[in-house]
Design a protein that fits this description.
This protein has helices at residues 25-43, 66-80, and strands at 2-5, 13-17, 51-56. By secondary structure, it is an alpha+beta fold.
């Protein structure tokens, strides 16, 4: 995860990237959807206003339980503060 402080106080922005090494478009989109939902449901409050976040999706996201994904994203966002 990469974080950039824009210092403008606006709402945080998030970008997701999943490389072609992970799999075909269906697999990459499934990973991206799981990460987006975990962020939306559990970790959105952990983001700092005025920051840009880039989350890199890995193949192990598909096999991990949703609660574990949510907890890990939340933990990394709090660490990035």
């Amino acid at each position: 995860m990469e974080v950039l402080d824009r210092s403008d106080g606006a709402a945080p922005r998030v970008g997701f990237t999943v490389t072609k090494k992970v799999g075909n478009a269906v697999v990459r989109n499934r990973i991206r959807r799981r990460l987006k939902e975990a962020l939306r449901v559990h970790a959105a409050g952990d983001m700092r206003p005025g920051s840009d976040y880039v989350i890199v999706g890995r193949e192990d996201v598909l096999a991990a339980p949703f609660a574990e994904i949510s907890a890990e994203i939340s933990r990394r966002l709090r660490k990035a503060r």
